[in-house]
Amino acid sequence: MVRLHSPILDRLAGLTRRIVDDIVLPQAEQVDRDGVWPAHSMRAFAQSGLLGLQVPGILGGHGQGLHALCHLTAMIGQACPSSALCFGMHCVGTAVIAAKATDYQRDHYLREIAAGRHITTLALSESGTGAHFYLPETTMTAQGEHYLLNGTKQFVTNGAQADSYVVSTVASGGAAEGDFSCMIVDAGTPGLTWLAPWHGFGMRGNSSRGLRLADVPVPVQNLLGTEGDQVWYVFEVVAPYFLMAMAGTYLGIAQAAVDLAGEHLRNRRYSHTGGTLAELETMQTRYAAMWVALQKTRALVLEAAQRGDAGDPEALPFILSCKADAGETAVALANDAMTICGGSAYRDNSRVAQLLRDARASHVMSPTTDMLRIWTGRALLGMPLL
Fold first, then answer.
1. Which residues form the Acyl-CoA oxidase/dehydrogenase middle domain (predicted)?
2. pLDDT beyond 60 at 140
């Protein structure tokens, strides 16, 4: 694929860099230590207009696609992976709304998002179907000008913090396999109950919570597309945007691990010799291998994003594989950084320990690494993914 220079992306990247340096990074340690939702980060993204990254330009947004999403989440993830996850999930939710938005949805949601007045997110996962997020059991029942939603969602990022939630259900007419509908559910709608916060091993600041829906009335105009047609969303919108947002986040973690290892190698000096760790050949080769692994993953992620944005018919296996590869690289490099940094890293809540914990989320967050490998193989072999 041809690498195209984008002045718009350069401007957005410069804006993101200033926010990361001035606002996100200084509070990143507290976000992880205390498990607090990064309100300061999301507020800065809102005030700068970055929440409208996936909103069409005609509605006041930036009209960006997969490349911009993974690029910005990598920058944020390098400083604070929890902030990158929260921002990324908002962007994915925005992309799902924008894909088939009606005039009402454009005015009531997308324009508000672009103006920095609205945060959205996805609510797809359920305990019963686990990693199979495309098989919801939550139901919607038509009742006049509303649908009544019933079910329980799990692991909702930005839970109890967002202004709306893109909730997946089965259509009101039945629950055939592959039936997949999406509704925009506003925060504060009667019948919504937030469950206790989930305290994760990593990504501690994403405010992941369960959401119970009991006869929740949702206006019919909040239905995205038509009932039951939205299995289309899974591989055309939900998966590409989610996978690229997460690939960017884990790429940022991997970069941070390489940076920390390099800093330690240059600065750690032995008192008995006066030499640094960087002068040892074994450390040089180990660090070189880390750098090569990072560049390989970066190239795959960039290729996937650019093919996806270009509508390349061969883009799917690239997109499916990039989160799995970025996650594996992040885990491996964070582990290598801990080995290189030694005792200074092997302590409770060290920066390297945080990166390793955050990176480990990649394998268990749906779609899991194993599931993505299966889908990639099927896509390459010309087989149905589901």
1. 122-216
2. yes
Whether the predicted pLDDT of 25 surpasses 60: yes
Residue 226 pLDDT class (50, 70, 90 cuts): confident
Write 281-284 long-range contacts (CB < 8 A, 24+): 283/340
* Residue 230 confidence (pLDDT): 61
Percent of the chain with pLDDT over 70: 96
The CA distance from 306 to 198, in Å, is 35
Q: What is the DSSP letter of 63?
A: -
How many Å apart are CA 120 and CA 44, to the nearest integer?
16
- DSSP code of residue 196: E
Position 379 pLDDT exceeds 60: yes
Which whole-number Å values give the CA distances from 304 to 26, 223, 247, 251, 376, in the listed order? 32, 30, 10, 13, 12
User: Considering the domain 7-119, what is its CATH architecture?
Assistant: Orthogonal Bundle (1.10)
CATH for 230-381 is 1.20.140.10
Q: 122-227, superfamily in CATH?
A: Butyryl-CoA Dehydrogenase, subunit A, domain 2 (2.40.110.10)
Whether the per-residue pLDDT at 1 is higher than 50: the answer is: no
The secondary structure element, H or E, covering residue 65 is none
CB 318 within 8 A of CB 307: yes
What angle in degrees, to the nearest 10, is found between the helix axes of 39-48 and 7-19?
A: 140
Residue 348: what pLDDT?
84
Cβ proximity of 353 and 345 under 8 Å: yes
Q: Kindly give, in sequence order, each residue whose CB lies less than 8 Å from that of residue 264, ignoring residues fewer than 6 positions away.
A: 277, 337, 340, 341, 344, 345
Pick the closest to residue 136 from 121, 150, 120 (CA basis). 150
